[in-house]
Amino acid sequence: MSKDEQQLEPKPAAKQNSKPHIHATLNKKKPEPQARPIALERAKREAPRRIPGHRTSTSSDEGPAIKKVKKEVKQEFPMSNVTTLSPEHESTDMTLLKDRLSESTPETPPPSTGLPAYVVPDEVGIPGTMRFGFLGLGIMGGNMVKNLLRSGHKVTVWNRTHSKCEAAVASGAVQKDSPADVIAACDITFACVSDSQAIRDVVFGSNGDNGIVSNVTGKGFVNMSVVDTDTSLDISEAITAKGGRFLEAVVTGSRVQAEQKQLIFLASGDRTLFADCEFCFRAMGKRSIYLGDVGNATRMNIVIDMIMGTMIAGLSEGMALAEKCGVNQNDVLEILEMSSMNCSLIRQKGKSIVEGADQEDAFQPHFPLKHQQKDLRLAIAMGDQVDQPLPVTAASNELFKRARSLGYGDQDMAAVYKATFL
Fold first, then answer.
1. pLDDT digits (tens, 9 = 90+) for 351-369
2. Residues 308, 372: contact at Cβ < 8 Å?
3. What sign does the dihedral 375-379-384-386 (CA atoms) show?
């Protein structure tokens, strides 16, 4: 055999060695993915959801409580050693995790950090034996009471105009003659009235009627009304001095949200009272957020309502300018809905403005104009206290004041559009 033929002939040893190597490669089992600790998965899944509108939680924006729990679980259950957990182990571990999650929540958490940790969870239990009172059955209060009754809570009601209690009584509520009678008969009493003077009358009494402060010892009182900070602090001081518990739970939303249980409650004050009201908040709304000391919820709500009022004032002037210039208002709304300014507030109030020229009931009150003007006034006063200029808010307030002077105070806040014309 020539030297060239020997070089071309395949080498048997090399051929034999390649087969086992290929066979081993093809049949090599991929490592099974190691199971994540069941406790970790459940702890993250059962944690309260983020506020609608915020980004979905990722490793970079999870609340501090969840991050702490995840770190502890990883230390106790290294991924390389964990496959499954027995039901007994899982149950014990979940108890420990929930305790840690509770311990990681500060007594008065700041509103700017960890909001998900202070949101009422979605799971709602069966109402307990607590008796609840409700003072003020207007546009908001009447719908909240209706949802409390539907969820199985026992409710006792009072309203300055007694006839407004009829629907609630027909649905199973008990009516009392005064706020003092309501709080005496209940463990926790909610109040949703028009303004600062109205809530002071409820608490301290007026026209010979005793206020709730006379019977508040050992009771809980929750103010849902939008009032100034000084009023809220005065009420808190008076109630706690008598041995009662006080909580602000200011409502964010309007009539539609109240009907559909989509309200947001901004709460501050007694933390134990906030916990006791958990199931009531869930029966009336979609989120309840604890913001710390008394006054924080009031300040937060005033800021939110101030932004809303200036938005509607701007929308009204824009729609008025469009009409004067011959621009179709429906086209304006359609373009707004396609832009970054698209939101339910713009859509709903814009629709009311467009329909206002042809329909008498276009401005049926969802959030009365007079209440929005009151909130703008409270924002200006709060700005004065801290030397914060609010020129846009001040201009919007003047527009709402003009609408009130024209007789539109009891109509929806979108009726401020009518005040834009000379």
1. 999 988 666 677 888 889 9
2. yes
3. positive
